[in-house]
Amino acid sequence: MYYIVDSVMDMLGTLVDTPVMEVSDLRMHYGDREVLSGVDFSAAPGEVVVLLGPNGAGKTTTIEILEGFRMRSGGHARVLGVDPADGDEAWRARLGVVLQSWRDHSKWRVRELLEHLGSYYEAYSTPDKKRPWAVGELLEVVGLSGAADTVTGKLSGGQRRRLDVAIGIVGRPDLLFLDEPTVGFDPEARRDFHDLIHRMTDVDSTTVLLTTHDLDEAERLADRILILAAGRIVASGSADELSRQVAGASEVRWTRDGRRFVHAAADATGFVRELFREHGEAIADLEVRRASLEETYMKLVREAEGS
After folding, report:
1. Which CATH code of 3.40.50.1110, 3.40.50.1860, 3.30.413.10, 3.40.50.300 fits the domain covering 19-237?
2. Residue ranges per domain, the chain?
3. Long-range pairs for 86-92: beta carbons < 8 A, 24 or more residues apart
4. Please, what is the Cα angle at 222 between 219 and 225, to 5 degrees?
5. Terminal-residue alpha carbon distance, the chain
6. Ranges of H-type helices in 46-143
């Protein structure tokens, strides 16, 4: 009895630990120009991975290869257990894609378009995940309930972008690719989008690979940040981990008896604890500052590009 339970638990643990994406030595060149020169990373179920990099670094190329829309020049890739170059319709039904822009179907009404696109996913519904997403619920989730009967060509820019997101997730994907998803969003729409991503990862264990130039968005959403520069991943980790990697020490600022103090500390928590132990309530205006994600990003990219 105990052996059976242990075996089942081991098997479930293996399923949870199986990467949704595995990429090793991924290479891509166009003629003599090498865009990707050995990209390596993986992503786990329910993980939000944000891919950062300067324009031309190969972010969109990487995503298109993993989506199965572009053939790689070399290296290995597995997405949902399948080489994306060989992915069939059942495999593709488990993916969601939100492109930088979508200009088709301008004469469809919003609800009709989502119902039509959603119908393609019905054959791939499973006991664990019913597909497609119910359109009424989906419209509410993306904030388009009030525009359900509006012709898509008459949507505002922000509404159009919300529709792009709805189209990408109508099939309730196991893996969602997002390429600059919040371009054109106002602050409220951006916040709603962030809430949606957290809902999908927490409730459905959806894995997300996202590109963005908005470093604040990257820091808010990412479980892990990958920085792509000079054709390879030059850094990987949370925003906090990357900051420690670059800065090494945190800057601690405080005042005591009207005097201002600044100290660099590798262990900021330990330093602050000792500071209060020694001076107690005399400490005021305490601030602990680590390198920002922008500072970290710029330093790592410059180092990678040799500038």
Report:
1. 3.40.50.300
2. 19-237, 242-305
3. 89/124, 90/124, 92/68
4. 85
5. 63
6. 59-67, 89-92, 110-119, 135-142
Q: Is the pLDDT of residue 7 over 50?
A: no
Q: Which residue has the tokens 């808010």?
A: 220
For residue 238, is pLDDT > 80? Answer: yes
Q: Which residue has the tokens 């904030």?
A: 143
* Nearest by Cα to 45 from 206, 202, 198, 173: 206
CB atoms within 10 A of CB 39: 25
pLDDT tens-place string over residues 263-301: 888 788 899 999 999 999 999 999 988 777 888 888 888
Q: Are 227 and 53 in contact (CB under 8 A)?
A: yes
pTM score > 0.85 for this model? no
Tokens, residue 240? 């906090």
Cβ partners under 8 Å of residue 8, min gap 6:
none
pLDDT for 248: 62
What residues form DSSP beta bridges with 225? 50, 237
